[in-house]
Amino acid sequence: MKGNELKPHIGIFGRRNYGKSSLVNYLTGQQVAIVSDLAGTTTDPVKKTMEIGGVGPVVWIDTAGIDDEGAVGRMRIERSLAMLAQADLALILFTDNRFEAEEVMLVETCRKRGIPFVLIYSQADRLKPDPQLLERIEKDYETSIFVLTVKNPSLREPLTARIREALPESAYVYRSLLGDVVGEGDTVVMVTPIDSSAPEGRMILPQVQVLRDLLDNHARAVVCRETELASTLAGLKEPPRLVVTDSQVYGMVSKLVPDEVFLTSFSVVLARAKGLFEQYIKGTPTIDGLKDGDRVLMLESCTHNVTCEDIGRVKLPRLLEKYTGKSLQCEAVAGLSALPEDLSSYALVIQCGGCVVTAKQLAARLAPALDAGVPVSNYGLAIAYMNGIFERSMRIFQSEN
After folding, report:
1. Among 126, 125, 130, 108, which residue's Cα sits nearest to residue 117?
2. Tens digit of each residue's pLDDT (9 = 90 or more) over 168-225
3. Are 367 and 247 within one domain?
4. The whole model's pTM is what?
């Protein structure tokens, strides 16, 4: 159920030749990253999954040095900082008794973005740390510094314990998608269209995640296509507690599901679970204010083959123009591709459900838009709004159970 992108991410950051790759190998007990005395050996982020007792599997990220040089070096630094934005925890290495602009930048970035961090004085066997320097840093940042040499295997467990302590529980403790609104014995109907954008021979990840969550909560899951929804509902002995549908058939499904039955979409379920629900609720009604020529940015967390029935690049832009009656400039950015530099030029950002990313990664992805004052919405909520069922799509989450 939990792919790499949904596991806690722990990034390792610091200057070149400060032992970042050696630390990855040390922590994983494997030769995962290439280690060399040459500065700049690591050019792109390297990821490795490892189990941590009491936490479960985590993804370690080895990054390029933040003091890299030249035009290509600046690109590597940008990639490293992009990884920082995705990290649930940052390990910041320094040595040679240097704690200067690069290290301060990393710490201040973490503090600004609410990213927990652990300061590690690395390569202590080569040059012992200055006690006064450590004392000053610990006082300035109200933390304790872990002094490390990877030549000492006895330090691995204490460092792992420190990492375990610093990693926020929200990064690895599973939060049920529907457990607070659906219980044992409840019937939930899942409506899953099959079109050219559906993966061959399997369901899409949001559908799988919701199905598993229903099973975990001992609910009865009934799965059908939209074309069989009417007969499926008619065949039930009593109305279901909830119908969860793919957003692209929201309009059709809402007409078939009795008003007394709760109705929402997979995208709305995920939007609520990822922690930005209130921002989406606030931002979605700005659809009504869109004007001719406005730019709308579609953010897809995954990368996939685009078809003529793609929801983010085809169906949703078409629905936006039909609903508003305006000519809009809809653009899409997928996966980890860089966002446009000037987000303030956009009238609205619409994010997918984010089934392949953590809440932390999704928040980091949308932070530049929110910082620029650009309203944000979600695929499911935007489609529900334009189908006149915005309030209905959220009703189950606002009901008393």
Report:
1. 108
2. 887 776 788 999 999 999 999 999 998 766 667 778 888 999 999 999 999 999 999 9
3. no
4. 0.73
Contacts of 80 (CB under 8 A, 6+ apart): 13, 45, 63, 64, 65, 66
195 with 134, same domain: the answer is no
Residue type, 90: A
Would you state the structure tokens that stand for residue 164, as one six-digit string?
A: 């375990």
Residue range(s) defining the domain that contains residue 67: 4-171
Q: Is the dihedral of CA 363, 203, 240, 248 positive or negative?
A: positive
Least confident of 290-299, 314-323, 344-353, 360-369: 360-369
Residue 49, SS3? strand
CATH number of the domain that residue 127 is part of: 3.40.50.300
- Residue bearing the bigger pLDDT, 67 or 178: 178
Owner of token pair 């099959």? 194
Which one, of 293, 294, 262, 299, lies nearest residue 382 by Cα?
299
